[in-house]
Amino acid sequence: LMTGEENDVESQARLTVETLFTIADAELVRRLWASYLEAHAISEEVCIQEQRCFTEETFAAAMADQEYVKFVLFADDAPVGMIGGTNNLEKARVAYVNPKRLVAAHPPAADGKLWYMPLLFVRDAWQRTGATRPMFAAMTRFFLDRGAAFASDYAFDKHPDFLALIDKTVGPAVADATSGTAVLRHQVLGGQTYVLWTLEPRETAEG
Q: Which of 1, 64, 137, 207 has the least C-beta neighbours within 10 A?
């Protein structure tokens, strides 16, 4: 999910973003699910934590759920990426998030002013092309219009520069939409570490 210089793929297609609450088109849901799987395939090799927190069934349910906003990126008529989430923070538990911790970190969340975004993916051919910029811009306008904040998570093993990416893509969108009167700031809320212990013969352990 990286930005960069335009490549031939991007320059030959028309990029558009649709902001949707309900996706009832079964074919579109199927294609988005395929994109989700493709974008997370590399996680199987590099991430200790499972990055696909949705099954095909729960993904389809989220697509139909009006409490999820979806910013769908299209290249011509083909869906190639999406950001999606909800301000019903109980539903954020699908990504193993503690809603109480979110509200403690951002009290307006109790009034629906915080959206958790567990859906964030772009097809492989569209990564490192700058194609995510209009998708992030649409998301930025949505939250600015509602006076809301957003939260997400990322796998450091997969995206060690994720925070810099967000600063690079969302930061300018915030500045443009507010004529420079607002800036984007982030707060790291915590993390989780996976540890492996082995039991070895004493001579090996000591020597």
A: 207
Structure tokens at 196: 């492996």
84-102 pLDDT, tens digit each: 999 999 998 888 889 999 9
Q: What does the alpha-carbon distance between residue 29 and residue 60 come to, in Å, rounded to a whole number?
A: 7
Burial of 57 (0-12, 13-18, 19+ CB in 10 A): exposed
Confidence of residue 3 (pLDDT cuts 50, 70, 90): very low
Reference 39, options 151, 116, 127; nearest CA is: 127
* Residue 36 in tokens: 């989700």
Q: Determine contact, residues 60/29, Cβ cutoff 8 Å.
A: yes
Give the span between the Cα atoms of 3 and 133, in whole angstroms. Answer: 8
DSSP secondary structure string, 134-194? HHHHHHHHHHHHHT-EEE----TTT-TTHHHHHHHHHHHHHHHHTTTS-------------
The answer to whether the beta carbons of residues 82 and 117 sit under 8 Å apart is no
Q: What 3-state class would DSSP assign to 26?
A: helix
pLDDT tens, 23-51? 999 999 999 999 888 876 566 665 556 55
CA-CA distance, 86 to 67, in Å (whole number)? 6
pTM: 0.81
The H or E element containing residue 15 is strand 15-20
Determine phi and psi for 56, rounding to 5 degrees. Answer: -60, -35
